[in-house]
TrEMBL record:
Family annotation (InterPro entries): AKAP, AKAP_28
Pfam entry (one): AKAP28
GO molecular function, one term: protein kinase A regulatory subunit binding
GO cellular component terms given for this protein: cAMP-dependent protein kinase complex
Protein name: A-kinase anchoring protein 14
Top-level taxon of the source organism: Eukaryota
Length: 141
């Protein structure tokens, strides 16, 4: 290392030591050192507590992403306001509405497949006929 680099490095280290010595209490005075360590411990514990509280809140928000909205009172209620608040609430909640026939692969979703009530009636009738045909099995239950 050249002498210029060495002297520059030495100056930087001297400045760092000077800054540290200004922030650290005199190590020869045990009372000041103990007070400093106690204060440092208190600040560190407060910081750790804040970080833990933030982490817990973050995890709760991740597990329950639906935010709570301020619902109107009965005196403020109108149909339009009610619909608006319900839409706002549901926009945050990934709610899926669908119908799947018993062990069928076709999933019926509103707006995607036109659900026919006759399908449900056919399933119910077929189930009833099957139960009636095997009444000895289903009577035990």
């Amino acid at each position: 290392m050249s002498e210029t680099q060495s002297s520059t490095s030495q100056k930087a280290m001297d400045e760092d030591n000077k800054a540290v010595s200004q922030t650290m209490p005199n190590t020869q005075d045990k009372t000041n050192t103990q007070d400093y360590e106690d204060e440092l411990t208190r600040v560190a514990l407060a910081l750790v507590e804040d970080v833990i509280n933030y982490a817990v809140k973050f995890l709760e928000d991740e597990q329950n992403p639906i935010k709570n909205i301020k619902w109107m009172t009965h005196g403020e209620f109108t149909v339009e306001k009610g619909r608006k608040q319900i839409d706002e609430y549901l926009s945050d909640a990934p709610i899926g509405v669908f119908f799947v026939g018993e062990e069928q692969e076709l999933v019926h979703r509103p707006g995607m497949v036109c659900f026919r009530e006759q399908w449900q009636k056919n399933l119910t009738d077929a189930k009833y006929d099957c139960m009636k045909a095997f009444s000895s099995i289903f009577d035990r239950v």
